[in-house]
Design brief:
mainly beta, six-stranded antiparallel sheet, about 5% helix, about 50% strand
Length: about 325
Amino acid sequence: MAPEPVIPPRNDLAEITRSTRDLPPAHYTFKIENFSLLANAKIDNVESGDFEAGSYKWRLRLYPNGKKKSNGDGHISLYLAFSDSNAQPFGWEVNVNFRLFVYDQIQDKYLTIQYAKGRVRRFHGMKTELGFDQLIPLTIFNDESKGYQIDDRCIFGAEIFVIKPTGKGECLTLVKQPVSDTFTWKIQNFSALDQESYKSQVFSFGGHKWALLVYPKGNSSEKGKSLSIYLKMEDFETLQCGRTTYAEYMLRVRDQLFGKHIEKNAYSHFSYSIKDWGHLNFMSLDDVNDLPKGFLVNDTLAVEVQIHVITVVKEFS
């Protein structure tokens, strides 16, 4: 006579967590009155009507005396069932993270039962019901002092989060010292400039369009004292809502005689609200206009930006 097969012990209970919370279930509440009549009826389970969550229809299936063939004897068994009203193609599957609830009417709290560590369960043609064989012991559930069944009434619930990969995403790369990392702007007739600010021609770095912004007589509190220089993102409107582009760069005014350039580093997250960034007091106007120092030659000022690091984003789907 062949030996009986060894049946491994169930480890479902080790994979289930229980907690309490104040908030009711987000997606469905299943209230039952005259529960004792249901428990004494000849049917072994009762179902809720269809409800929708995550674009699919579901039902709650309750076994008031436990689903005995699934080791639920002596417990309430409660399951989430994929409704037959869903028209699904052959080979379908739906991945779900869900929670089931029992309402404590005394404490005004919800006992929350879910798979541990946010485990995602898979519904498919051969598995249309998932849940908890031993949701709560009947000895506790039937004890009115515990609050789960008061005046022969009880309340269950469900929250269902369907995992639907969209296939969309993005790759963010920090590019260090990109090719052609320096842009030079030679501003002619500098001493004759009479507007508050001037902008260079547009140039491209890291998939975006930029320009240098110069205030020849200074900006804001530095008017009449300093040269103000900024890097400006010209195509900030192309940034998606909430997205930024980070850049580290050096602003420079060239010493055209001796090579002793004035350089200052800057960095910023450029966005729809931060379009330009730089230095209000880049250098004193006295130094700019001191011809022997070599910054202004033939009434031309050479302003540069050199990009050190910039983020490049590529979307994929």
